[in-house]
Amino acid sequence: MAVTMNDVAKAAGVSLKTVSNVINNYEFIRPATKQRVLDAIDELGYETNLTARSLRSGKTKMLGLVLADLSIPYYAELASDIMKAAWSRGYRVLVEQSGNEAEHEKAALQGQFRSLTDGLLFIPLTLGAQQIIDAAGKKPLVLLGEFVQDPRLDMVLIQNHEAAAAVTTHLLAGGRRRIAVLGADDGETTGSAGLRLSGYKAALADAGVEYDPALVVRCEWRRDGGAAAVAGLLDSGADFDAVFGLNDALALGALHELLVLGKRVPEEIAVAGFDDIEEARFASPSLTTVAPGRAEIAERAVELLIERIEGNMAAPEVRQLQAAFELRVRKSAT
C-alpha cells in the first residue's frame, strides 16, 4: 500500500497541515519540526511530486514559464525554444497560461505553480512592476517582453523600436508612402505595440513622410483581427499601399484578406509582419518580417534565471539584456 501524507504526519508526530507546509516549502516552520517531517519522509519512502523528492536540496530542477496564450504562434515557438534551452542545462519547464488576466498572473507568482519551480520566466501583460515585486517572493524571476520595464527587475527584451523602424524603412525604400499599421492605438507608447509604433513613426520622420493616424488600426493580435482591420480600411476608402502588422498573425490575416478581395501582393499592396513565426516562410506569397532573436531570447533568459537559482541572486546589479534582430525580406514586400 502506498505511503500517504497521513502516514508521514503520524510518524513525525505533527498535523497533516504541517506535512503539507513542509512539502510546499512554507518558510515559517520551526527547523526541528521540518527535520522530523523530512526524516519521516525518508524513512517511509514517501513521494508526492517533484517538490517532495527535492526537499533535501531545496531544488526541483523545474523552471516556470508564464505567458498569455499558447495558441498565439510566437508564444508557442518561444516556449519550445525555452524548453530546449532548459533541457540542455538539466532543467525542465512547467508552462502556465495567464489568459491576460491579472488574477491568473498573480496566482502564478505566489501560488502552487510557484512552489513547484525554482525560478520563473514571466511575460506580464496586466500586472505592473510594483505588483510583480510585491507578489514574487524570494525565488528568482526574469521578465520577458516589454509591458513592464523597471530597473529593479531582471529581463530580456526585444529591440521593438529599432526592428519596427527597419521594417518601415524597407517598405519606404520600396516606394511605399501610405503604410497602414495594424495592432496599435494612435498615441500608444508603451509595451510592444507602443514601441513598434514609435519605430514606425521614427522611420517615417527620417524619410520625410507625414504620419497619418487614420492608417493606424487597433485590433486583436490574431489573424482574424488583421483580416478585419484590412477589410475595414478598404471599406472606408483609405488610401494605402502597404500594411505593417505588428505581429505575423496580423500580417498573415491581412495578407489572406487582401488576396481574397482581389488585391495583388506586393504589386498593389505590400505586406510585412513581426516575429518570423514558422508560418511566415510558407505563406503565399511568403511574408517579409522581423526575426526578433527568439532563440537568443530563450537562451539568455534561461541562462540568467539558472544563474540566479544556482547562487548568483546577490549579483551587484540587475541585468537587462536585448536580443539581436534580423529583417527577413520575402516576396510579400520585396
UniProtKB/TrEMBL annotation:
Extract the signal peptide range.
none
Q: Which SUPFAM superfamilies would you find in this protein's record?
A: lambda repressor-like DNA-binding domains, Periplasmic binding protein-like I
Q: What keywords were assigned to this record?
A: DNA-binding, Transcription, Transcription regulation
| Family matches, as InterPro entries | HTH_LacI (IPR000843), LacI/GalR-like_sensor (IPR046335), Lambda_DNA-bd_dom_sf (IPR010982), Peripla_BP_I (IPR028082)
Q: Kindly list the GO molecular function terms attached to this UniProt entry.
A: DNA binding
Q: Where is the HTH lacI-type domain?
A: 3-57
UniProt-recorded name of the protein: DNA-binding LacI/PurR family transcriptional regulator
Source species of the chain: Paenarthrobacter histidinolovorans
Q: Upper taxonomic classification of the species? A: Bacteria, Bacillati, Actinomycetota, Actinomycetes, Micrococcales
